[in-house]
Amino acid sequence: MTTTLAKPSEPVLEDARGLKCPLPALRTRRALLRLDVGASLTVLADDPMATIDIPHLVFELGDELVETAQEGAFLRFVIRRRGAGPASGKGDQTPAIAADHGPVGMSLPTKTGGPEG
């Protein structure tokens, strides 16, 4: 459950074993955002949801999932920092979440038609 900082040429380790969803993905995101472009992050997690959440996060941030492996009771992800989001090209600028309103700037569907009541 710790982040081990290393020299720029060495991969950084994020040990998220023992943490449950969404914490492994959140800690991975925080560790990725601290890395220089080209640096590598190794994530260890034992939460089954990490198999979905971490690759999704990597895609959203525009980074590269180099390797995914099952090692005994835990998963190992190796991620290379690219620093550019896939669609926007703006990198780490993911929408903020406003309480009870969804992502900031996102229009939520409104009830239209039919009787009010």
What are the key terms here?
about 120 residues, alpha+beta, Translation Initiation Factor IF3, five-stranded mixed beta sheet, two-stranded antiparallel ribbon, 7 strands, about 20% helix
Q: Strand portion, in percent?
A: 25-35%
The topology string of helices and strands comes to EEHEHEEEE
Oligomer: single chain
CATH fold label: Translation Initiation Factor IF3
Major sheet attributes: 5 strands, mixed
Indicate the mean pLDDT: 77
What strand order characterises the main sheet?
1-2-3-5-4
Poorly predicted runs: 87-111
* Level-1 CATH class name: Alpha Beta
How large, in whole angstroms, is the Cα Rg? 17 Å
- Distance from first to last alpha carbon: 50 Å
Number of helices: 2
Number of domains: 1
| Structural class category | alpha+beta
How many DSSP-defined strands? Answer: 7
The CATH superfamily turns out to be TusA-like domain
- What is the 3D form? globular
| CATH architecture label name | 2-Layer Sandwich
Helix content: 10-25%
